[in-house]
Amino acid sequence: MQADYLHQYLEHVASNGLLLSPEQQAALHISLEIAKKNYKFSQLYFWGKVIGLNADYFIVQGVEKDELSDRKSLYSLNCMDWKLLPPATDQMIENSLHVKGRFMGDPSHEYETITIKKTEEEESDLELKVKEEERLTATIEQINREAAIIPRGAFVRTPLEQIHKNRSFEGLSVTEAGKLQSYLHFTTPVKRKTKSMLSQANLEESIDFLNSLEDDELKVFWSLQYERGSKLVILRNLLWLGFTFFHVPETPQHGYIYMGLGERNIDFPFMI
After folding, report:
1. pTM for the full model?
2. Residue from 18, 240, 1, 51 nearest 141 by CA
3. Is residue 106 situated within a structural domain?
């Protein structure tokens, strides 16, 4: 959610138990302005919090020019001092998948050597050493790929292939806000899918450049609800418990936040 409206937007997800203390909000109000200026970001978003055993990681993402490809992640343990995270590589993500258990809250923590069994054709096993900072940036990237969403039309792709906010976006109607097809995965699609519920005549290249939740093979992971008498729409991701998206229909207000343990919900099959 946009850092400039953090206090206001947090109220939209407060009913889901996603809260920050008054002290944390006050610290963020000051430190995020400084971080935005120091890192020369055009936009700054409060991404959320990963809860650790000894300390929590507060995460923000800054944008330089392109809203999708130019995002950088920063973390803080005290809401005041921010450190840039390295970009997540495919190797980092693959290695982090082998780490089990809670985050410690110490970026320099090194998990015990992880042994990966190889096939019978390969002689020795593979041993990995994963630092928590690497696991953190990999987890953020995984959540972004699988859960980060936007309303259709909120962002546009320019002829120069850059993605920017759509200044003319006035929000989804109350009816459209209740449909999964009205929300897009805010991540570069590996393979472009055809929107099943939109006719070809209604497709617009400038806004329909991302995959719709309606075409998501795992759309069962999404829970959509109206709140406050249809004045607020909430989408929760059940694969990453703690991820919540909100949109106020007929207004440009929307955003998402994650507050959780940084672990996939492996118990989901038993919840349905």
Report:
1. 0.91
2. 240
3. no
